[in-house]
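>> Question from a student workshop board

For tomorrow's exercise we were told to take the sequence and the ligand below, predict the bound structure, and bring the output to class. My setup keeps failing. Could a helper post the expected result so I can at least see what it should look like? The ligand is L-homoserine.
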Amino acid sequence: MQFAGLFSPDRPLVLESGKTLPHVQVAYEEYGRPDASGENTIFVCHALTGDSHAARHTPDDLPGWWDTMVGPGRPVDTDVFHVVCANVLGGCAGTTGPCSAGPDGRPYGPEFPAVTVGDMVAVHRELLAHLGISRLHSVIGGSLGGMQALEWLLQHPGDARNFTLIATAARSTADNLAANAVCRAAIRSDPGFSDGRYAEIPGHPGPVDGLGTARMIAHLTYMSAESLETKFGRRRQPAKTGTGPSYGPYAVERYLEHQARKLVARFDANSYLCLTAAMDAYDAFARPHAVDPGTAPSVHLFSFASDRLFGAESTRHLHEQLSAAGLTVREYRDTSSAAGHDAFLLEVPGYLAHMDTLLAPTDHIRV
Ligand SMILES: CC(=O)SCCNC(=O)CCNC(=O)[C@H](O)C(C)(C)COP(=O)(O)OP(=O)(O)OC[C@H]1O[C@@H](n2cnc3c(N)ncnc32)[C@H](O)[C@@H]1OP(=O)(O)O
Ligand SMILES: N[C@@H](CCO)C(=O)O
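>> Workshop helper replied:
Here is what the output should look like for this input. Compare the format with yours to find the bug.
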């Protein structure tokens, strides 16, 4: 089964803030198929700029953002599991967000209400109910996706047999908040931002430079100093004319410009503001949770040694908090990789093989 769909709940969504979104649409994709047990589904939660296209459906399909993890023979094995991935609330890849039309027909833009990680999970759960899935094999996610998996674990621990949280944190540090603040300042200070109303102006490109700069700043937090040094060092690379702003002669700058262009082509600036605000506000253990230690699922935690965003320290802290909440962390692994935060998306030796073992179904037949 290979399927991309849209789901619209038939009632308004009341957000954790108390505000209401009168109409919500969710873009999702499915891979593999449910088995007779009805419990072989893995829900994949995406990170900040991801979408529902986690993996290729066929070899000639467009690449997915997690082809290393999801697919035939991969740890999230689509020959064995039924996999669902949906674009988050507040996103810009099919699910309702700031660029969707509001009740007056105009794009919400800056009027889109603040959403939380809990709201994202609530929408995903509604989608699963619509698909007739009441119990999951796993919920898995990295970074902001890991925050969603954590929130899901704390609020609805009975929903899945295991929860796998990768390169994530129970809450952002001041350093994380600062990086997001600088990214948002870059977007807002671009004259093209137009107080967030750029989508209402016909032909207006929006805050292209601001969003691009935000991505360059953020991308630095996704890589390690070591990986930048190894990939680029002080190698010089002239800028191609007509490819955007350029100030220096170095390859690393051309690389960041490339990352900026790619994001600008696929992402909305107001979504960027909305989703980074949700990430910043998330504080998993600041409110009551629903975990009953007697019925607790398996929890797996992964970090990467060179991750300067949500590294081993964040994960150790999360481990302590989960234990204090009565949850048993079945597996915690800090993988040695120089790739930084985005290592969770890459073919890192040891990491995927270990994930394969942890996710392996014990009682599911191949479908
Ligand atoms: C929907 C989604 O994709 S969202 C979630 C995940 N995806 C992202 O975050 C996208 C941006 N992130 C990245 O690219 C991440 O670094 C990763 C982890 C996904 C990929 O890492 P790696 O495989 O190590 O790739 P790397 O960081 O070297 O980037 C390769 C890209 O940079 C380009 N590049 C490399 N060096 C240079 C250079 N000197 N000048 C210009 N461009 C360069 C490559 O051509 C390649 O471009 P392409 O992606 O358009 O094919
Ligand atoms: N680089 C990934 C992970 C960020 O945490 C993304 O853009 O979603």
